[in-house]
Write a structure and sequence with these properties.
Helix content is about 60%, strand content about 0%. It is mostly helical. Keywords: Oxidoreductase.
Length: about 400
């Protein structure tokens, strides 16, 4: 059965009320009136993919054109760059329609979001790296899709590509012609289309998944909530100064990012209140361990061995538990280090207060935390290459047997 035939079948299931919200078993209930579009059909995003680019990329894969396309796209880096020559005409025509910001994008908010990312990068490295990154391994569909696709066989490269997306999103001029995020988002959208075409051919993936086709609009929303919504909530929990204007700008950068990734505007939350409501439906209920996720988590934490973080593995395990929770730590089998747990839970809040100028008292663990965050940043920033040289390429196969 073709992908498009499956989609028609699944859409019928949605119309009959058989659909679930991101695999929760709960009918989709989030109202499009809370979206940036302000209205919509209300169709479950579980059964919405990216049809035009999916057809294009499926044709490229089946006709063997992907290697040539990937080579042609190497020189396409900055948002203001012309589209690369040497692409098939239909792909060029498609990219012309999507290689731009939505009409509702606000350059002032995007600039403020970039400035916020720069000012709070200390916390963002920790939250995205040890929080969102590890949380992704207990999102069953995401963990299984990553593990059984080509990227799952080389987590260092996979992590580098993920970081490139976040790095370009956070750049000071990431959405401007001299920035790179629009191009990075479009390349990522092509990769998603490739995975949607290839992964259903994997017998290993089919044996463990509850999906016919991966990376629906609902799946992308789940990932957004494990990143943007989670980070905002933790910053507030940690009492990091976060003015309303910064929060609004931070959300706006993610709204534009979701649009560029092919999520329909009727599913993109218009406010943090709407984002929290949506997250409570699509993310919170689905978190659970899988064999694939446990292996990916160990791979990700193992990458830190390449850089001297100045801390023990026990400290790293406890920081993951602190950023997420002990339940996730237990799911992933992260061994306890109670001395490190006590240090983190007592000294990290004091570290934040001192860094934010809210306390003149230097915490005893200041140097440890400062060096840890610096080393963590270097792990992401360097990792043997540069974010600007990491190649985001359309896959041609799944995880090797």
């Amino acid at each position: 059965m073709s992908n498009l035939s499956r989609r028609r079948m699944l859409s019928l299931g949605a119309a009959l009320g058989l659909a679930s919200a991101a695999g929760t078993g709960t009918a989709w209930a989030w109202s499009p009136s809370g979206s940036v579009a302000g209205a919509g059909a209300g169709v479950d995003p579980e059964y919405v993919w990216d049809d035009e680019v999916d057809r294009l990329v499926a044709s490229l894969i089946d006709s063997g054109q992907v290697p040539a396309v990937n080579t042609a796209m190497e020189s396409w880096v900055n948002n203001g760059d012309p589209l690369p020559t040497g692409l098939p005409a239909d792909l060029t025509a498609y990219l012309r329609t999507v290689n731009k910001l939505p009409d509702w994008a606000d350059p002032v908010k995007l600039a403020r979001a970039a400035d916020f990312n720069r000012r709070k990068d200390t916390y963002l490295f920790v939250l995205y790296g040890l929080g969102s990154g590890i949380m992704s391994t207990v999102i069953p569909r995401e963990a299984r899709s990553v593990y059984w696709s080509a990227g799952g066989a080389d987590m260092q490269d996979r992590a580098a590509k993920t970081f490139t997306f976040g790095y370009d999103l956070a750049q000071l001029k990431g959405f401007e012609p001299s920035g790179q995020f629009v191009v990075t988002a479009n390349k990522t959208r092509l990769v998603h289309a490739g995975v949607r075409h290839l992964l259903p051919r994997s017998p290993q993936w089919r044996a463990v998944t509850d999906q016919e086709i991966p990376i629906s609009n609902a799946d992308i929303l789940v990932t957004f909530h494990s990143l943007g919504t989670f980070v905002r909530r933790k910053l507030l929990d940690w009492k990091v100064p976060f003015p309303a204007a910064d929060q609004e700008a931070f959300l706006h950068s993610w709204q534009v990012a979701l649009h560029l990734l092919g999520v329909r505007d009727e599913y993109i939350p218009a406010s943090w209140a709407e984002a929290e409501a949506q997250s409570g439906q699509v993310l919170t209920p689905i978190l659970t361990p899988t064999p694939e996720g446990k292996e990916l988590a160990e791979d990700l934490l193992g990458l830190t061995a390449q850089v001297d973080l100045g801390v023990t593995r026990g400290f790293l395990n406890e920081f993951v538990r602190y950023v997420l929770n002990d339940e996730v730590g237990d799911w992933l089998g992260l061994k306890r280090d109670y001395a490190s747990a006590t240090l983190i839970r007592t000294a990290w809040p004091a570290f934040i207060l001192f860094r934010e100028g809210l306390s003149p008292v230097v915490p005893g663990a200041f140097y440890l935390f400062d060096q840890f965050v610096r080393a963590l940043a270097m792990l992401f920033l360097n990792r043997g290459t540069s974010p600007t040289t990491t190649r985001i390429v359309i896959p041609t196969g799944n995880r090797p047997s």
